[in-house]
Amino acid sequence: MTVLRRAITRAGVKPVGAYQHRFIYRYCYGLVEPLSGDKFFVTAPQVNTLFFEYLLQEFSRHEPSVYKIIFLDKAGYHRAKHLQVPENIRLVYLPSSNPELNPIERFWRDMKDKVAFRNFPDESALETWINTTINNYSKEHIASLTGYEYILQAVSHAKNAMEVS
């Protein structure tokens, strides 16, 4: 599996990079907290409602006393009618076709840049690389990538409102 990216070269010169003519798929579900830089990731062989529900269940068990709000796009598996959402999680759907509003999108762009032009001999090597790379992200780096000003302000206002209540 090779992820291709653009590269700066002289006019008329194509970038040189290793390329593999087979495909290995591994999907990564991720949640980030833009204020603190906390992260929660799960890898899976597919993208579908079943695995998304698994992510929600696992995330719910992580600090079960904390109420969690997750911003999502409107992908079909995020909105399935039979999706079971744990009681300590609230899903907030962002407007369609606006990935720039979703904090995780900058993280995914950074991850895709890191995987570009790499080859992996098998699915296990790819999954190991994904997990190692994600674990190497510091909280500060994640917060700097995902801390959109409008989200930081909204979280601050929400926390202040909760303290007043």
UniProtKB/TrEMBL annotation:
A Pfam family that the UniProt record links to this protein: DDE_3
Annotated Tc1-like transposase DDE domain residues: 3-126
GO terms of molecular function: nucleic acid binding
Superkingdom classification of source: Bacteria
InterPro entries cross-referenced by the UniProt entry: RNaseH_sf (IPR036397), Tc1-like_DDE_dom (IPR038717)
This protein's name: Tc1-like transposase DDE domain-containing protein
Lineage: Bacteria, Pseudomonadati, Bacteroidota, Cytophagia, Cytophagales
